[in-house]
Specification:
By secondary structure, this protein is an alpha+beta fold. 55% of the residues lie in helices and 11% in strands. It contains 10 helices and 5 strands, in the order ααααββααβααβαβα. The longest helix has 65 residues, at 2-66.
């Protein structure tokens, strides 16, 4: 009888252990199922998003083609736009070269009163600014204008740029053209955080810093029609990159003041100057077509 009781106790314990193992397996399988379900749901959402993008692109292309556009016409239009952008870049580069090389200095010299005002401005902010009176260049030292590897202006830089704006918008200079040029040293961008912020290399970093300065000037009232923005990476050094002091000089953003009136006229809001077209492309492209992905598709006629 005692033997029977012992056997029943062992059997009961076995059943209890079996039940525990089954519950654990059930929980594990349920967790796996939930994870797979979540992945499947995410994959479905990604697929729907991709499908929506594909359909949007197709509808844009269909809309363009329904207006009589052809691949040759679109290609011609894009080539014309690229040529116009290249022309604008060449003009900006020429103006920059003229300024830094002092070409036509007699005809492009800044008014004496403006030069004196800018010299005082630089003297009041020696940690941040240098002024080249011979070329009309205000140089912002990148090491104090931005954090390392960043294109975000420091509070002090914003304060100084606000003061500069009052000079640039003075009665004499308010119509002058301005070029903002960013420069770096020759050290490659390697910090993952810098790259993740969009500054993938020195070309991006120099351009983005120049854009930040240009945008800040606009925030304080400088007309965007007066501004041009350039990024030169490490291609225009003013000192040797073999020393720390030389690298620091090369890390800069320049604001070039060109003492002649703005020549270009801004196109009215909402309009775009038509690109040059060949005779063959005019049939398919009667006007400039905006290919920006966020633009509405032109209505078929």
């Amino acid at each position: 009888m005692a033997y029977t009781h012992r056997w029943l106790a062992v059997a009961a314990l076995g059943l209890m252990l079996t039940g525990c193992v089954s519950q654990e397996k059930y929980n594990a399988l349920k967790l796996d199922r939930d994870q797979l379900s979540e992945r499947l749901s995410q994959a479905g959402a990604d697929a729907r998003a991709a499908q929506e993008k594909a359909e949007l692109l197709k509808s844009q292309l269909d809309g363009l083609m329904s207006n009589g556009g052809t691949k040759d016409g679109l290609l011609t239009n894009l080539q014309a736009q690229n040529a116009e952008l290249q022309k604008q870049l060449d003009e900006l580069n020429a103006k920059y070269n003229d300024a830094v090389n002092g070409l036509g200095k007699a005809g492009m010299a800044l008014p004496a009163a403006l030069t004196s005002e800018l010299e005082r401005f630089a003297a009041e902010n020696p940690d941040l600014v240098e002024f080249d009176a011979n070329r009309g260049i205000v140089k912002f030292k990148s090491d104090v204008t931005f954090a390392s590897g960043s294109d975000m202006l420091t509070p002090k830089a914003k304060e100084v740029l606000a003061k500069l704006t009052t000079i640039l918008d003075g009665p004499v200079t308010s119509g002058y053209e301005l070029l903002v040029a960013g420069h770096t040293d020759n050290v490659p961008v390697t910090n993952p955080a810098t790259k993740a912020a969009g500054n993938k290399d020195n070309w991006y970093l120099s351009s983005h810093r120049a854009i930040s300065v240009g945008k800040e000037l606009q925030q304080h009232g400088v007309s965007p029609a007066r501004l041009g923005v350039l990024g030169y990476a490490d291609q225009r050094p003013i000192a040797s990159n073999d020393t720390a002091a030389g690298k620091a000089q090369n890390r800069r953003v320049e604001v070039l003041i060109l003492p002649h009136a703005v020549e270009s006229k801004a196109v009215a809001s909402g309009e775009m100057a038509p690109a040059t077209m060949t005779k063959g492309s005019k049939k398919g492209m009667k006007a400039h077509v905006d290919l920006n992905k966020d633009s509405p598709v032109p209505a078929a006629k």
